[in-house]
Amino acid sequence: MKLKMLIKIKATVQPVKASDSWDRKGDDIMPLSMVSSGEPMQIKRIGGKEEVKKFLENLGFVTGGIVTVVSDIGGSVIVNVRDSRVAIGRDMANKIMV
Length: 98
Description:
By secondary structure, this protein is an alpha+beta fold. The chain has helices spanning about 50-60, 90-95, and strands at about 40, 45, 65-75, 75-80, 85-90, 95.
């Protein structure tokens, strides 16, 4: 006896307004190093050792804060955070989850 199974998959695509990108819903987080330039994002989590977290906090990177990538050149990421422009290495940007 052969059994045939038919699986239907329904996918829906919903447009996202650029102004809503910093306030995404759900669990979809990514490192700051993956964010496109000019897109304001909300910081969800900061990883790394305690000293790294403290260093980033002193620069203005805090959970719930808004950060915007200005440019991504080579190994550095330049961002706007708390009305300041800050350059950090890609390794640090990978620890900031948005």
